From TrEMBL:
It holds the Pfam family ABC_tran. Coiled coil: none annotated. GO terms for molecular function: ATP binding; ATP hydrolysis activity. Keywords: ATP-binding, Nucleotide-binding, Transport. PANTHER family: ABC TRANSPORTER ATP-BINDING PROTEIN (PTHR42711), ABC-TYPE MULTIDRUG TRANSPORT SYSTEM, ATPASE COMPONENT (PTHR42711:SF15). This is ABC transporter ATP-binding protein. It comes from Luteimonas yindakuii. The lineage of its organism: Bacteria, Pseudomonadati, Pseudomonadota, Gammaproteobacteria, Lysobacterales.
């Protein structure tokens, strides 16, 4: 996650050094956070409620004043050159915060006007972004008539009106169903593939694992782990599998040394085993118990397991997300 050294190396999209925030009531929300996000990255920021995520995003988006430390956006010091830094950055907050009685086209054009973009250019951009968000057919409809997923996509389209080099998404798919969420994933992948660096906070661990290449986990105001997603997941010495079986499972399941075996339902078996264990041992034990396996798949909760190990608690919403992903 650290930027490569060298005089000609491009600066990180976001460089945070020893960032601290203590509120007036004495709560120390950030305790010396340092993060580098490389240009073009799709980066996840995870943490339980109260870990410091919202404070960190608030400081980077200039909505919260820092106590000390340094924030640079593509090399621009946020404190010394706030306006210049903010022009490089787009924010999609968790709350829907546009006027429900405005039309999507007007919302985007007016937003661009706040940043000094001429109206003629803003109209062209608005059409481009609404088409990219699959909302062009809703351009002249009242925004309050849009579905929840459409409103989320409109928020992203609005943030893209300034052509930000860095896009920060705070729980962008909160409250939408899994089908809509997967559609939004495709939109975000396209934005990232076009060159925009994305930082994502989410409680949906499946979302982070599917979208992000790098990850930082924050807990009690400190970064407790960071690095490439695959490398962090590889640290887990336990791997989980779901076995779909042909006939109903017996009342007493076989005991397999070194593994944890439990029934999810009458035809699904959940097995956790050391990564180094030969999977054939599991198949042999199941076969000896008269359990015929029809298919097998990896469980999708590896990131949740890593999170629990590092912080001692799952993030809010993890169980609900896991249920939707199943």
């Amino acid at each position: 996650m650290q930027a490569s050294a060298g005089a000609n190396a491009a600066p990180p999209a976001l460089a945070i050094r020893d960032l601290r925030k203590t509120y007036d009531n004495g709560v120390e929300a950030l305790k010396g956070v340092s993060i580098d996000v490389a240009p073009g990255d799709f980066h996840a920021l995870l943490g339980p409620n109260g870990a410091g995520k919202s404070t960190l995003i608030g400081i980077v988006s200039s909505l919260v004043n820092k106590t000390s430390g340094e924030v640079r956006v593509f090399g621009v010091d946020l404190h010394a050159e706030r306006d210049r830094a903010m022009r490089l950055l787009g924010l999609v907050p968790q709350e829907i915060n546009f006027n429900m009685f405005e039309k999507p086209l007007d919302i985007l054009v007016n937003y661009a006007g706040f940043y000094g973009i001429p109206r003629a250019e803003a109209v062209v951009r608005a059409e481009q972004e609404l088409r990219a968000a699959q909302l062009w057919d809703k351009a002249d409809k009242m925004s309050r008539t849009l579905s929840g997923g459409m409103k989320r996509r409109l928020m992203i389209a609005r943030a893209m009106m300034t052509r930000p080099k860095l896009l920060i998404l705070d729980e962008p798919t909160a409250g939408v169903d899994i089908e809509i969420r997967r559609g939004m994933w495709q939109t975000l992948r396209q934005i990232n593939a076009a060159g925009t660096t994305i930082i994502l906070t989410t409680h949906y661990l499946e979302e982070a694992e599917n979208l992000c290449r790098n990850l930082a986990i924050i807990d009690h105001g400190r970064i407790v782990e960071s690095g490439p997603m695959r490398s962090l997941l590889a640290k887990l010495d336990v791997e989980g599998f779901l076995f779909d079986v042909e006939d109903a499972l017996p009342a007493t399941l076989p005991e397999i040394a070194g593994t944890q075996v439990r029934a999810v339902d009458a035809h699904t078996l959940d097995v956790d085993m050391p990564r180094a264990m030969d999977l054939n041992r599991v198949f042999a034990a199941l076969d000896a118990a008269g359990i015929r396996v029809r298919s097998m798949r990896n469980k999708s909760n590896r990131l949740e397991e890593l999170f629990v190990r590092l912080t001692g608690e799952p993030p809010h919403g993890a169980q609900a997300a896991a249920g939707e992903a199943a």
